[in-house]
Every structure is written in structure tokens, then in C-alpha cells.
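Quick one from the shared queue. A colleague (R.T.) flagged Acyl-CoA dehydrogenase as missing a structural entry in our internal table.

Convert sequence to C-alpha cells.
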Amino acid sequence: MSENTLKGGEYLIAESSCADIFTPEDFSDEQRQMADTTEQFVVNEVIPHIEEIDKQNFDIVIKGLRQCGELGLLMMDAPEEYGGLELDKASSMLVAEKISQGGSFSVAYTCHTGIGTLPLIYYGTPAQKEKYLEKLISGEWPAAYCLTEPGSGSDALGAASTATLSADGKHYILNGTKQFITNGGFAELFTVFAKIDKQHFTAFLVEKSFEGLVVGAEEKKLGIKGSSTTQIILDNCKVPVENVLGEIGKGHKIAFNVLNVGRFKLGAAVCGASKMALVDGIKYANERTQFGKKISSFGAIGEKIANMTAEIFAAESLVYRLAGVLDDNIAKIDRSVDDYYEQYLKAIEEYASECGIAKVYCSEVLARTVDEVVQIHGGYGFVSEYPAERYYRDERINRIFEGTNEINRLLIPGMILRKAMKGELPLQAKAMKAFESLMTPSFEEIDDSVPFAKEKALIGNLKTLFLILSGAGVQKYMDKIANEQEILMAAADIAIQIYALESTVLRAEKNLAKSSPRKQELLQAAVKVCAFDATEEVGRAARQGAFYIEEGDTLTMILSGIRRFAKYDASGLLQAKRLLAKTASEEEKYIF
């Protein structure tokens, strides 16, 4: 456990040491064994049936969930006193990453173990856990989560479903319609949100067998066709009063805290999906011959392979850095206290912005990866006989799940700026110092003999740009900055790139000395590719933000600062990409 864990958002104003972060190279033998068990389950029990699953043969999905229960893959977050394993977040994310190779089955699994089960674990009474938790972690009862409605998606608190206490005081009568409910067609237990007396937003544990719960027809979807997605209709649904989950009127706490974990877990899952798609792309490029050569030998294809490899390395570095931070924060809580889960969720909520970053960055890496894999396949990528077509369709939902990427982009800087306004982050003082640097020439020299010194200096400069832009925005709009969505989106893009690049550099730095000479070259190559891309993206977002906020001499000064700070010497970039591409093509795998 690190003693120097930064607070949420603090990465933007402070330096992190590579010694204080968790990386995939730090997995224990037990964690690797769990990953292998998960992967073998997917390879042997899911992938052979993937076409049948995509035809909505849910018997296979239900059987698979029960097999996961037998393997212990449904109980990782459940407390030991109820038969769970209560493992760390790094282990939970590793399993999510491996299960993602199972296509639509992984959607059912992730829903069940995440938003389906976590509300009960975090907020359930002992009696509720005693009644339901064993059924969930064994796979006997699949679970679902009913928040979205036809008229309320991102605006979850705008839900219209109602709950009214019955005359005898024994039941709440629920009415309303829930939309896009994953596992809806076969779930046995639903976490349902409704407003008591049209006012108090509250969660309920609702069994499928309860009178008045009606399962709608399966939606006809673009992708993840083998997952169940239905409406859940509440028609005077009778729910016993003892099935209220958490406090009356505090349903928003359950909804938002569970989504923080869901966003983070989604980041890990799409990392696994990216790796699988990449490998298929590489194998096809090695098999396909044009003009008498394997297409993997062409620079145009090799660059795609290199870019995908580097981006996945960054996404993976980000996810497991965050897993380590969460585990460090949770480990500080006394497990014996009565309000353990309240403190536990606060520990996660502290990093809500980083959870949003994981969701946005990793889902967009997957989007670019599957797009390039289809392109590598050419016309064959457009036909369903090849998996590239399914990867492309299945990917799209990940930028909508768990809060759209637009909503998350608004939340990321919004939460950071809120902390600053409360005095929890000294962002204002740092922003003023950053403004001063615009008028102060820098003569600092970088020692190229120190590994990644150039990239660390770049990260410091990009943080300065974030502070300049966010400081200018707050100074102009004050607390009304929340209404300036275009500015917040630009700030989010900068914050996201900084966290991803810093995670990449710290991971490479931590593992450089203990790596073989060949692996050292690969780590340095990946960092160079990521640093170049991050610089370009931050420069674009910063210029856009500057034009949104300022004008005249101040705008000119900020644009000059952007040219100065969003600058990176990427000498050797082509050689770095060729090394990544050559190694990945030769080994036909994700090479980190």
C-alpha cells in the first residue's frame, strides 16, 4: 500500500512517483491465476457458443453465469460473511478485462456483478443480504438494474416512476416504465428506482415474481445482440416495505456511487476487448497477401498496429493505476466499523473524476481500435463471417453505457472545479502561478540521460495548460462555469490526456530497469507514441478552449503559451512505431 496516494484530481497539480503506482506488472501469482481461470472459462465455455448467444439463446448465458458462480467469479466484491471473496479492485478489474473476450456474454456478466449486485452489497440490510446475496453470487439468480426511463437517461433524477405506500402499510405500489434494462429478459432480482409520493427518489429490491412486474419485448439492437435488453413495466407492482434499499429519498446516492464503480469497471472491460480486436487485426494482416507481400509488412498497416498497441498500453496503465489508488484508499478504512460501506463508497467517490476518465479514455481507445481492425480487414471486415464486424457493432454502446461520454466529460472537470471552490484542492493558487509562467521565460534544461525526463517535463507543461485554461474559465464565469459545457468539454480532454500520459510514463519508468533490453526499447517506443499523440490532442483542446474563453491581448498571450507548452520533441517517432508494429506482428499478440 502506498503512503503517498494523491487525492482525487490532485494529479493535475502534483507529481506522482512511479514507486507509488500499481501496474499490471505488479500482479500477484494469485491474481494471474484468477485471470487465467477466467480466460480459460471464456475460451472453453463462451466463445464456442458465441453465435448462439448472439441469436439470444439465453439458456447458454444463464448456464454461463452459474458456471461463473461455481468458479468464484461472481463473488469477488461480496463480503466474506455472506460467502464472498471481497477481493481488491485490481483483481476485480483483471477479471472484468478477461471476461470481456466473451462478447455479449460479458455484458450480462458485468451487469450482474456490477450494477446488479453492488447496490445490495453496499446498501442492503443484513436481512436483505441474507435473503438475496447467496442467490446472486452463486449465479442462481441473475440481477438487473432499473434506472433509465423512456424520458430520463442522463437525467436520472428526472425519473417519472412512482411508489405509493399501500393502505395497510405493508407494500409500496410501484408504477412506471424502465427502459434499456440489461439482463431484463432473464433477471430474477431488479434494483428499481422510483419516487415515493412523486418526490423521494428511492431504490427498491424487486423480485421478478412480484405481482405487477412485467418484462417487455427484447430490443432489436445494433450490437451486443446476445445480451438481453428490455423494458421493465411496473403496473401496480407490489413491493414489500422491507425491500426498500437504503434510505428513503437517498436513491441518488445508490445510483451515482454504483455508477462510479461501473465506469471504472467498464474501462477495464474495454481494455480486454481492445486487446482481443488488436490480435485479430494482426493475425489477419499476417495472413492477407497483396502485391506479393503480407499486408502487415506495409507501413500504412504497421502504423495502425503501432498506434493501437501504444493506445492500449496507455489505457491499461490508466486503469490499473486507478485500481491501485482505490485499493490504497479503501485499505485505510477500519473493516469493523458500522459505517464501513459508507466510508468505502466515499473512498471511491473521492476519485469519481478519475473513474470518468477511465470510462471515456478506454472506451474511445476501443472505438479507434475496432475501426482500424475493420479497415485492416478491408471488405472482409464488413461481413459477419469475420469477427471484426461484430467487434465494430458491439463497441458502439460503450460510449453510451454508464453515462454517455459527453456527460462524463462534463463531470470530470466539474467535480475537480467543485473541489477547488470548496478549498479541497488549491487549484486557484496553482492557476495564478501558471498564468505567471506565461510571462516568464523558462531556461530549464532537460537531462536527456534520465529516462523519460523529456516526457515528465511535457506532463508538467500540459498540467500548466490545464490550470491556465480552467483558471481563465473560472475567472470569467465564476460558479456559472457549469453552464459553459463547451469549455468544460475542452478542459476534460486536457485532463483526460494528462492522466493517461502520466500513467503511461510512470508505468514505463517503474518497469524500465527490471526489463530486458528489448522490452526497454518497447516501453520507450510506446511512451514516445503516446506522448506525441497526447501533445497534439491537448494542443487542439487548449486552442479551442482559449478561443471559447478569451479574446484580444489575453487570447494572444494564452495562444502563445499553448505553442510553448504543448510542444514535444518526438524525434525517432517513425522508428518507435516500426518497432512496435514489427514486434506485435511477429509475436501476433498484445506485446505488453
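The radius of gyration is 24 Å.
The CA atoms of residues 214 and 233 lie 5 Å apart.
Added to the table.
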